[in-house]
Amino acid sequence: MPPREDDQLTTATRLLQRRREVAEVEQTLAARKEDFQMRLERLQQRREELGQKEETLKDALLKFDKFLKENDSKQSRAVRKARAERNMARQKDREIKQLSQEIAALQARRERLEGKVKENAVYWAYLVSATDKSEKFQELRELIGRFDTMLSTREQLLQRESAGQGRLEEEKQRLRRFVKERSDLILQHSNQLATLQTQLDQARALALKWESKWNHIQATAAKKTLLLGQIKVVILNLFQMVNKHTQQDSEVSIEDPEGQLDRVSAVLNAAWVHE
């Protein structure tokens, strides 16, 4: 009789120990399952955040690329305009040269007239004395009138020369202003291009940085997915072994690892209780 009581106590002890082990295993599996689920949720949230950041970055890059294309178009128009203005400047330069030649011709003519006036002044006394003898000029005032006409012609020539000089100086001033404005504009465009190039380099560096982070996240997710697949395979094998051992069909789907794990736990619990 005492040996039987000892056997019963040993069996009950083993049963209680196995139940505790089963409970510990179930708690461990539940904790791991909950931890794994939380990790999957955090990973999914991180993927969504990175996806949003990637879309934002792509949109920013597209807008920046559009801005660069528009700026290139503006620069092309500016270059064409500058080329046309350079051609206009050359035309103005040719006109200035032509005016200079006209002024030189007028100056030469003025010098010739002044020389003639000096030469005629030498003969003033002779003309005065010859007026009385002249059949063309009956009086001295006629001769003076003729002289006044020559002076008027000389004054007109001087005025034309002065006007030509003024026009030449105005054209030179306009040319200087034009050259300075074009130089300032070209310098401004150059500075803008340098700034845009710096911004483009920074955007490309940021894109490479996010691409590296995304590749790391994808590699980590792949490892997690592989581990999850291995766990599902182990659970499915246990589920199939239990079904084969119990010779009972289960309604749990082959795509339901949680249900399969519950089925395995239930069969093991039943077996330990029966034992």
TrEMBL record:
InterPro entries: CFAP_domain-containing, DUF4200
Keyword Coiled coil recorded: yes
Gene Ontology cellular-component terms listed: cytoskeleton
Organism phylogeny: Eukaryota, Metazoa, Chordata, Craniata, Vertebrata
Keyword Manganese appears in the UniProt entry: no
Coiled-coil region: 26-116, 168-213
Taxonomic source organism: Atractosteus spatula (Alligator gar)
Domain DUF4200: 15-132
Protein name per its UniProtKB record: CCD42 protein
